[in-house]
Design a protein that fits this description.
Helices cover 67% and strands 0% of the residues. By secondary structure, it is mostly helical.
């Protein structure tokens, strides 16, 4: 019995040694440090929920006392500053930027204040989206929209957007520049404006945004001999395919090739079948959100 136990113990020790020798260093490190990343991430997340609320209160109150665009009574200013302080770090700056922007373009004091308070509670990227997209859409740099339309577009791609706001902003700006470049498309501005907005909203279905999948798909639909679609048709197809998420383009191409080779379909019915198959690239009514935006500011739930 003693010999058997000793042999078993020895065998176990040999197996353990061999495992350590044969396991790649990175794997060993992940075994021994498996809890470190989790702890670091948890600590980072915890710190992001700590707020210098007094600083935000004081900054807001000083801004309201100093600005000439608004004349709030002192007790009103203090009440506003208290609400802004619930937005955690950076809230005072987010509040001031939105308030001045909207007042400058003609919003009423009440509406400007409400929007500014709302964005004080949002993440920095969400507020940046609103300011940048509204400014570019309202000014002639992009679409020269009337401000109600520009506001709605900015809200769609900021406060109401479900994915990563930074990716949506980058995709939107890239798409607008591409669409407005007359050497590329030379399309009516009304079509260009609506199209860039529709495609940018698909960004949330792609982990790194929709820009690269869009340009790759559009290029193939335009340049590959079996497709050779005109500009406007290629744009429409690109949106109609990509709205079904990251697997839709591959499903489309695979289905098209199969329809042509196996079913011996001509171009038009093959395209119709490929579009139909591509629309089944997700289980639910819409594709899953594939981006993970920064969390809202800690005080948002309380503030609302």
């Amino acid at each position: 019995m003693k010999t058997t136990v000793t042999a078993t113990t020895l065998l176990s020790a040999i197996i353990l040694i061999l495992t350590l020798i044969l396991t790649p260093p990175t794997t060993q490190a992940s075994i021994y440090n498996s809890g470190i990343d989790a702890r670091e991430n948890a600590l980072k997340d915890a710190k992001s929920k700590l707020c210098s609320a007094t600083d935000e209160y004081i900054k807001t109150l000083k801004f309201l006392r100093k600005t000439k665009e608004f004349t709030f009574r002192e007790e009103i200013s203090r009440s506003i500053a208290e609400q802004v302080s619930k937005g955690c770090d950076g809230a005072a700056e987010r509040f001031a930027q939105v308030l001045l922007l909207l007042k400058t373009v003609g919003f009423s004091e009440r509406k400007s204040l409400q929007q500014a308070l709302d964005f004080a509670k949002e993440s920095p990227d969400t507020q940046k989206n609103f300011v940048e997209i509204f400014s570019k859409s309202y000014l002639t740099e992009f679409f020269d929209y009337e401000y109600p339309r520009a506001i709605q577009l900015a809200l769609d791609l900021s406060r109401d957007y479900k994915g990563d706001p930074a990716l949506a902003r980058a995709d939107f700006i890239s798409l607008v520049k591409f669409c407005k470049d007359t050497s590329n498309l030379d399309l009516p501005m009304s079509f260009c404006a609506e199209y860039a907005e529709r495609v940018a909203k698909l960004s949330q279905y792609f982990t790194t945004g929709v820009e690269k999948p869009f340009f790759a798909l559009f290029k193939d639909l335009r340049e590959k001999k079996e497709f050779s679609l005109d500009v406007k048709t290629a744009l429409i197809f690109s949106h109609d395919i990509l709205q079904h998420g990251p697997k839709s383009a591959q499903n489309f191409f695979d289905a098209y090739q199969f329809a042509v080779k196996d079913h011996e379909l001509t171009k038009t019915p093959a395209l119709e079948l490929a579009l139909k198959i591509a629309s089944r690239s997700h289980v639910d009514a819409t594709p899953p959100i594939m981006q993970f935006p920064m969390p809202k500011t800690p005080g948002e739930e309380d503030a609302r």
